[in-house]
Every structure is written in structure tokens, then in C-alpha cells.
Amino acid sequence: MKKFLKITSIVLVIALVAVFAACGGKGDTDTDEKTTLVMATNAAFPPYEYKEGDNFAGIDIEIAQAIADKLGMTLEIKDVEFGSIVGGVQTGKFDMGIAGMTVTDERLESVNFSTSYATGIQVVIVTEDSAIKSLDDLKGDGSMKFGVQQDTTGDIYASASVEEDGYGEENVIRYKTGADAVQALKTGKVQAVIIDNEPAKSFVAANEGLKILDGTWVEENYAIAIAKENTELLEDVNNALAELKSEGKLDSIISKYIPAE
Ligand code: ARG
Fold first, then answer.
1. Pocket around ligand 1: residues whose beta carbon is below 6 Å from it?
2. Domain-wise residue ranges, the chain
3. What distance in angstroms lies between residue 42's CA and the mean position of ligand 1's atoms?
4. Beta carbons within 8 Å of 185's beta carbon, 6+ residues apart
5. What spacing in Å lies between the alpha carbon of 168 and ligand 1's midpoint?
């Protein structure tokens, strides 16, 4: 492939790429020459991804770096809106999406997922002095507002269950980040935030006057989103994950951020 790329006729290169793609992609056109592995995330989701000053930190960032190291590639991190990750991976703008992202049937229609590297549970955060004492109290009087991060599974579940419980669309307030939803809870704009358990713990630890309601909701698997056509990268990532697991590196990254209780 290196020789082909030297050919100055762009048309010819495009034609070759099209031919390779049509051949079913066995002789990969992309990753052979590529030295950069572009990861999309939404870095307001501790302990999976967050900013520490100008730097990115968190479980997903370290896993992505370890995968890039194994593939001999340079990791490039793009911090984008959560809802744009799947589409961007699908169109090839990003090589992979790593964002504490839950495997869902709907997302599987657009992208492939790696093997799962972690699990999450949806929980509910309220203020310490809240009248909401249990998940049952969420049924409430129809006036309660729920804060979620837009396009997350928390958003999807909240939207689905509010209807069951006699609420409407206006009761779900969508924020750009989980951190923004938590801010809205602190200022009384919403009465509950529905979000993944580990970020919930981080937010409760970092903000006074918040607590997580007892009882869990939906259990989910986190995995890495990769374009459907990019089966080679999917295989590479799965192999890298399997190695990281057997080396104990995956566990050590996770326990660095989530100390055993
Ligand atoms: N697990 C949830 C989902 O996949 C939330 C993920 C949000 N991640 C983030 N980096 N903000 O929808």
C-alpha cells in the first residue's frame, strides 16, 4: 500500500480504495499506514474519563492508551458530545469510541462493540435533604424533574419510565454532560439525576449534600465502539483487551480508579 499512496493521482487512489473496500476489506486499506488511533470520548464522566487540568485521565483513557501501545499506534483523544460518538465512529471520523459506553441494541445497528471491559449500573442521585427516599418515591406527583446526560442510557431509561409513571417529556431535562446534570440537581433545577453508578459515586464524593438512592436499576456492559467495516481494528482491539486482561493490566487500571470496597 505504501507505494500506491505515492501515486499523485488522487482519482486513482480513490479508485483503489473503493476496489479494496469492495473486496471485503481483507487487505486493509487504512490501519496499515496509520500510526494514529483516534479515540472519541466525553470527558466529564469520572472515573472513566475526565480532565485533570489540560490532561485527560480515567479508566477509559488508560485502557485506550494501553491498546494503542499494543498496536504500536499513537493515541489521539477527541473530547466530544456523548451523542456524537456513535455517529462519528460510524462515519470513520473516529477510529473508536471509549466513553463508559453501554452496549445497546440500538447502537449495535450503527457500530460494532468490542468485548466488554467493565459493567455499570444506573442509579439515582438526589440531594441529602430530598423528600425522595427510595426508588418508589420517584413515582411522585408528576411534577418532579429528572436530570440526565443527553443520549445516554440514563436518558433513554428515564424517558421510557417517566411515561410509565405518569410523567411526560417535560419531566426529563437533558444536559450536555453528567456533570452539568449534577450541577442542576445542586441548584434545584431537577430533583433527581439518573446516571451510571461509578460516575455517581465520584460526583457525590466531589459535591456536598448529595447522595445515591439505595437500590439499583439496570445493569449494563461497557465496550468500545468501532465502525462495522473496520473488522480488523475490532479484532486487534479484542486481542489487545484479552492480553491486557490476562496480564492483569485491565484489573490494575480499574482498581487504580475504583478501589475495592
Ligand atoms: N453508560 C451510559 C451510556 O452508554 C453513559 C455513558 C456516558 N459517558 C460519558 N463519557 N459521558 O449511555
1. 41-42, 45, 48-49, 82, 99-102, 120, 149, 152-153, 178, 196, 220
2. 36-117+223-257, 121-219
3. 8
4. 125, 126, 127, 147, 191, 192, 193, 210
5. 23
Q: Does domain 121-219 have CATH number 3.40.190.10?
A: yes
Which cell is 131 given?
Answer: 423528600
For the CA atoms of 209, 210, 211, 217, the dihedral, rounded to the nearest 10 degrees, stands at 170
What is the atom index within ligand 1 of the atom nearest the CA of 60?
10
Could you confirm whether domain 36-117+223-257 is CATH 3.40.190.10?
yes
Q: What is the pLDDT along the chain (261 residues), one digit of tens a residue?
A: 444 444 444 444 444 444 444 444 444 445 456 699 999 999 999 999 999 999 999 999 999 999 999 999 999 999 999 999 999 999 999 999 999 999 999 999 999 999 999 999 999 999 999 999 988 888 867 788 999 999 999 999 888 887 777 788 889 999 999 999 999 999 999 999 999 999 999 999 999 999 999 987 789 999 999 999 999 999 999 999 999 999 999 999 999 999 876
What pTM was computed for the model?
A: 0.85
